[in-house]
Amino acid sequence: MPRTAGGTAAGSAPAPPVTGGGYDAGMATEPESLAAAPGWQGPSLPLSPLSRVRLDELLHELLNRVGEVAASRERLRALLDAAVGIGTDLDLRSTLERIVIAACRLADAEYGAIGVIGPDRTLADFITHGISDEDRRRIGALPRGHGVLGLLIEDPRPIRLTDIAAHPRAYGFPDHHPMMRSFLGVPVRIREQVFGNLYLAEKRGGGQFTDDDEELMTALSVAAGAAIENARLYAQMRRRQRWLEAAGEITSVLLGEVNRTQALQLVASRAREVAEADITLVMIYDEATDALTVEVAAGNAPPDLIGATVCGSRSEFGTVLADRHIAVVEDLGKATDWSVPLATGTALLVPLAAAGETLGALAVAYRRGSVAFAEDPDIALVETFAGQAALALERSRAQDEREMLAVLGDRERIARDLHDVVIQRLFAAGMQLQGAARYATPPEVGSRIEAVVDDLDTTIRDIRGTIFELRTGDAGDLRHQIRALADEARCALGFRPHLSLGGPLDSAVPEPVRPALLAVLREALSNVARHARAGAVEVNVVVDGGRLATTVVDDGVGLGEVDHHSGLDNMRRRAEELGGTFEIGPARPYGTALTWAVPV
């Protein structure tokens, strides 16, 4: 078909004109010829200069958003790594230190700290990062939560400050403390309870903490609270495990023969270990003197604390002893009037009670400034050890009573044998000797027989005295004291006085009379040693017919001039106060005789 000059077939309609750049039309009509045309550079968008600027801005904003997303992703990755890292170890102290380090790294802070809130709503512990140990020592005491740090304690919500020193609550920094301006603080919660606060200061580069920093720290505090709770639960589990082991050890000891001191020492040592305390004391109460005496001590106790006493009812122990209630004191040394110096931190006082009787108290004291117990399980553990200490005392007392009953049974049997067999035989032998003396022709034989009879009478009296001692529950305490007094006088006299004891001294002489009797004997023997120049002294103490009679006879130079201001007046006054009599005069053939007698 013939073509026209425009390139169209003859007789056909002309092609539509190309508009708008002609890219679409050219591609539709002659794609191959256009692509092959010399100098063709491809298609171009029909945009105005203003549209091109707007497109560049959108592209730039898109790139910024992509960068922010990447940065946020990195920060989230860092937050996840921090959350995983702080939970790698279940030791509470190490966990707190890792939390502070992770917070400083995430927020790019120069300094960080975590403060543990104590029962008194102040900071009981303060773990820092960014300050060297030397600087901490130079700064001195750790903060207690006053000033700006106390804001989070009063109102546990995140707080950001551009200049911490400009805040109205700021106290200022102590000497040797680094200067800080920017500040960020968030509370650390364990469930609904505020455990402590996380503090950050001095953003690196001189900037300010941002909203993102606050959000990161808030998220980290949630992970920190979970890690802290896990660490505390782990510590509690370990403590209960140690408690079970200690309880089993103490129980095995109490099931056998109980040595009171060793059993109480074991209870005190294990209670201190399980409660992680500094000092543990087991104190025995004496109702007669209203005094508590330290029986055993474990831990960093003063060496002279064993045997130290403290008043019972007129001290912090009053409620513990009277009502059998647990008491908590801030300082055990200041709470009571000790006979030796003592200084502690918070202390827990637990009564030792058994069978309705208060036997004493268990004191568990912590170091000054340390984190004290604040949980019921801790108190329950200490109460358990107090119960074991009371059980040890009861077992020891029951064991002593059984041994005493066995001893008294043996003594009763020996006393019965002495009375029914030995004394009767001696008495019969004496009667036979007296009968034989009448038939003795030489006077010397009769005298010797009478001397043997007198010796038998003395032996019978001694055996009767021994029987009284054996049948007395306190093992002849008064007789023992009189004998000890005679032994004591040996040094002053140069010889031991001849002592004769008769009657039920230990059972018949009441307690109020005993000190007076011993004082009279001591004064009488002292006078003989100082003034009589005697070579022999006879001391006779006898209970007969409801009357206690004491005589002291020496063979010295005699009474001489009596000094009315001497100890004789004291002996007379003691006898009169007890309704008795006192006499002193010459002995035959020489010397002095003293008689002191009171009703019993």
Task: Report what the structure shows.
One of its GO terms (molecular function) is protein dimerization activity. Keywords: Kinase, Transferase, Two-component regulatory system. InterPro entries: GAF, GAF-like_dom_sf, HATPase_C_sf, HATPase_dom, Sensor_HK_TwoCompSys, Sig_transdc_His_kin_sub3_dim/P. This is Histidine kinase. By secondary structure, this protein is an alpha+beta fold. It has three domains: 157 residues, Beta-Lactamase, CATH 3.30.450; 141 residues, Beta-Lactamase; 126 residues, Heat Shock Protein 90. Helices cover 48% and strands 19% of the residues. The longest helix has 62 residues.
According to CATH, what is the class of the largest domain? Alpha Beta
Low-confidence stretches: 1-42
Which fold name is given in CATH as the topology of the largest domain?
Beta-Lactamase
Q: Name the CATH architecture of the largest domain.
A: 2-Layer Sandwich
Helix content: 40-55%
At the fourth level of CATH, the homologous superfamily of the largest domain is: GAF domain
Say how many strands there are. 16
Biased composition (Low complexity): 1-13
GO molecular function, one term: phosphorelay sensor kinase activity
Keywords: Kinase, Transferase, Two-component regulatory system
Region (Disordered): 1-27
Brief characterization of the structure:
48% of the residues lie in helices and 19% in strands. It is of the alpha+beta class. Mean pLDDT is 79; it is low at 1-42.
How is this fold's topology laid out?
Elements: H1 23-29, H2 31-35, H3 49-85, H4 92-107, E1 109-117, E2 123-129, H5 133-139, H6 149-154, E3 159-161, E4 183-190, E5 193-203, H7 211-255, H8 260-275, E6 279-286, E7 291-299, E8 309-311, H9 317-322, E9 327-329, H10 332-335, E10 347-354, E11 357-365, H11 376-437, H12 443-470, H13 477-493, E12 498-502, H14 505-508, H15 513-532, E13 537-544, E14 547-554, H16 567-577, E15 581-586, E16 592-599
Parallel strand pairs: 12-13
Antiparallel strand pairs: 1-2, 1-5, 3-4, 4-5, 6-7, 6-11, 7-8, 9-10, 10-11, 13-14, 14-16, 15-16
Helix pairs in contact: 3-4, 3-7, 4-7, 7-8, 7-11, 8-11, 11-12, 13-15, 15-16
